[in-house]
Amino acid sequence: MKKTIKIGTRESQLAVWQATLVQNLLHANNVASELVYIKSEGDIDTITPLYELGVQGIFTKSLDAALINGRIDIAVHSLKDVPTQLAVGIQQAAVLKRASYKDIFVCKNDSSFLENNNGSAIIATSSTRRKAQWLNKYPNHRFENLRGNVNTRLRKITEHNWNGAIFAAAGLERINLRPSNSIDLDWMLPAPAQGAIGIVCRTDDQFSFEVSNVLNDEPTALCTKIERDFLRALLGGCSTPISALAIMENGAVNFKGNICSPDGKQKIAIEKTASIPNSDDLGKLAANELLKDGEAQKIIYRLRNAEK
């Protein structure tokens, strides 16, 4: 009798879309599966800003627990939400081919106000990374907290006196909800692993690992590893104003990363390139080089003390 893989997923439209994609890919490889819906702490509390919730693993802890106790065999996540240090007993089984890594801005009316870097506006986001980079470019803008699933967040734009809100392009595009009045934020570096879907399983479950690993996209797995290594070496949390992007081009991996002070007044950036065979440690090397910068060290020191 063939084993049916139990796929753990959060209940949001986007999470279910991602889990269903994995289910369809498994089916194409003659692997039977079923979806198991699990609420995360981040889904239950949709009011408190993420940085106040102690966001490390807030969208993955419930699924981790379900994995460890055997309720599910694999869990599907937006990889940017997964802590860089996985829980004991859990391993990464696959990373699917990446969609758009970009952040986008959804305007309430029009985006002409963005042409004036010194003007005023109200922007909605719950991300400290997005806020910090935005303030670095638009220091006079104010921010409102924005929580909830993508449908809820899009609705809130129409209900509040905001100029617009920041989203991940992949999340809206995957469920065909990207508004026509949205614009790519090409100047904003994304969260490490943004746009990638990850699959995790128990370390002692070889069958689930093997059937999932067939779906692994090696270029995406390498680039997101480099980005997550950069994050982990600097601070380790996905709630911090740290951004990273690794792209393969012409036989090399080009890496860009930065860390900002939460108020956006400081931004320390780095770029590095390595051939693909020599790129495995690129994220760590970039982080170590950045740590030699005195201003970067000051930002990290303040961030670490703020978390205590």
Automatic annotation (TrEMBL):
Cofactor list: dipyrromethane
Give the gene name: hemC
Q: Quaternary state and partners of this protein?
A: Monomer.
Supply the EC number(s).
Answer: 2.5.1.61
Q: Is Nucleotide-binding tagged as a keyword?
A: no
Tell me which species this is from. Answer: Ginsengibacter hankyongi
A GO cellular component annotation here is:
cytoplasm
What is the top-level taxon of the source organism?
Bacteria
Signal peptide residues on this chain, from the entry's feature table: none
What is the name attached to this protein's record?
A: Hydroxymethylbilane synthase
